[in-house]
Specification:
This protein has two domains: about 80 residues, RNA polymerase II/Efflux pump adaptor protein, barrel-sandwich hybrid domain (OB fold (Dihydrolipoamide Acetyltransferase, E2P), Beta Barrel), CATH 2.40.50; about 220 residues, Chloramphenicol Acetyltransferase (2-Layer Sandwich). The chain has 13 helices and 19 strands. A hairpin with a 2-residue loop joins β13 and β14.
Length: about 400
Amino acid sequence: MSIVEMRVPTIGESITEVTLSQWLKEDGEFVKLDEPICEFESDKATLEFPAEAEGKLIYVAAEGDDIEIGALVAKIDTSVSAPAGSDTPKAAPKEEVAAPAAPEATTSSESYATGHPSPAAGKILRESNVDPSTVSGSGVDGRITKEDAQKAVQQKAATPAVESTPATPEIKAAPVAYNREERTEKMSRMRRTIASRLVSAKNNTAMLTTFNEVDLSEVMKLRKKYQEKFVEKHGVKLGFMSLFAKACSNVLMEMPSVNAMIDGNNLVYHDYVDISIAISTPNGLVVPPVKNVESMDFHEIELAIKGLAGKARDGKLTLDEMKGGTFTITNGGVFGSLVSTPIINEPQSAILGMHTIKERPVAINGQVEIRPMMYLALSYDHRVIDGSTSVTFLVKVKEQLEDPVTLLMNI
């Protein structure tokens, strides 16, 4: 017997442990070289683990286990050959028909992944009450991808009459009124990491928040006037995020202390601005940075954010794309938040919180006018940034957004 040990590979400098989120192959199944056998969930991303040899897979770890880097996950018995006749199972000799292995040969084209949803796809299907067995998988070995799940949900919504009729007898409306059931689910590694870092930021920084409000009338006019030409030339819409990112980068270059961070007893100042953009995903919040925003045009910022957001929601962000960041912007307004106090993204020293835009009456030159207003919140580490500095920063960002000409000219 020749055994190849499968151990957790080194994923990144800061990652010391992963969670085995899902087996893609069954215990005892024959696997081919480089064929994905399981998925690891790290602090920042979900990664497939390919087979390092061809042979029979032997489980060592179980789904849900937390495994250290370098620890044993599985073994592959390379002395086991591919099942005889696996390519043409119906042509098997007569003596093999009655053998115990014969039924497996008829399904050799399938694997554990066949008909099983990925973590993101599974969440979508559960939330929409869609049975995975009714969904066709287009992924590796017939696995149900996020896109497959989204299509299934859309199809269900498009044909409510067909699906609602048979489902009616199963509705449990009556007993729900006094339901006392509970369920316990293990937190995902990403959720545990987020929780740990939020508590760390709250406990280990002298965090304060200052607020202001910005009149977005001129920004609205700018977008309305040039949106069509912008899309025609650059293939992407001019959104609020690029305008806010550019305004922040301009002011951060002018006020380097807001762009600094603590390293032991030292302060590290940056001559560049890497803005981390908070993106909501099925597994939690991620904050990949857009690098060198101070040197980018608006369309470049929009394209960078769009690319990172797409990768984040598909679980395809690389570890390099998650590293770094000198300042963070989070937009709770997309969920309807009117005002909030964002938590600092350590080791950064400040984070800007955007919120929903509401038309409100405001006094303009002695008269009351209805304007599109947004509350801004800047949470900052008081060990690095003085109160007056934080207020000045927010005022300067407000001024640039209320007069986009100064934003475009960086004055």
